[in-house]
Design a protein that fits this description.
The protein is α/β, with parallel strands linked by helices and 183 residues long. It is built from 5 helices and 12 strands.
């Protein structure tokens, strides 16, 4: 399957998830994330504000924002910027996703760990996004540990990957923790 076909297939499978399945799988994944040494040691954490078809981060952000500096992405043209999460200060962004206020100085903060969604991941750490390349461009600017999170059916044996696609250091799906050997 090519990337476009794979995106369509995963999109169809997401519509079959019940609200309870979404809640349980998000809880399962994020309960593993918070026990990893990489997360435990991190001070600055890049998360995402979840869309309805992604593992929900709402409870996770709420649970951790007092103990860690939480950062969320915002869309800035063809790039992702990063702003600090401050409760009650999110605004609707380009795609209707709640985004943090843009930092005054426009610099990208040092991030210890990034926890990101994807359309699909594979056992080699490859990530298939929605096709705009936002996260790939961001990861070329950030030096941090990257964890991909997904529903069980989004973890595949192999997905199409290109040279510019950034690989994850870890992928977590319900019942699976993948730590590929990155070269």
């Amino acid at each position: 399957m090519n990337k476009k076909e794979l995106r369509e297939e995963i999109k169809k499978r997401k519509t079959d998830l019940t609200p309870e399945q979404k809640r349980v799988e998000a809880r399962d994944v994020f309960s593993v994330v918070e026990t990893t040494p990489e997360f435990r040691q991190a001070r600055r954490v890049l998360l995402y504000h979840s869309l309805p078809d992604e593992l929900s981060t709402i409870e996770f952000i709420s649970a951790w924002h007092r103990e860690k500096e939480i950062y969320l992405p915002y869309i800035d043209g063809d790039f992702i910027g990063i702003g600090k999460y401050i409760p009650g200060e999110l605004q609707k962004g380009k795609f209707g996703i709640p985004e943090p206020c843009r930092p005054q100085n426009g610099t990208t903060p040092a991030i210890d760990i990034a926890i990101v969604p994807g359309v699909a991941f594979d056992r080699q750490g490859n990530r298939l996004g929605r096709g705009k390349g936002y996260y790939d461009r961001l990861f070329h600017r950030l030096d941090c540990y990257k964890i991909g999170v997904c529903y069980r059916f989004q973890l595949l044996e192999s997905i199409p990957a290109e040279v510019h696609d950034c690989r994850m250091d870890m992928v977590i799906a319900p019942g699976n923790i993948i730590k590929p050997q990155l070269n």
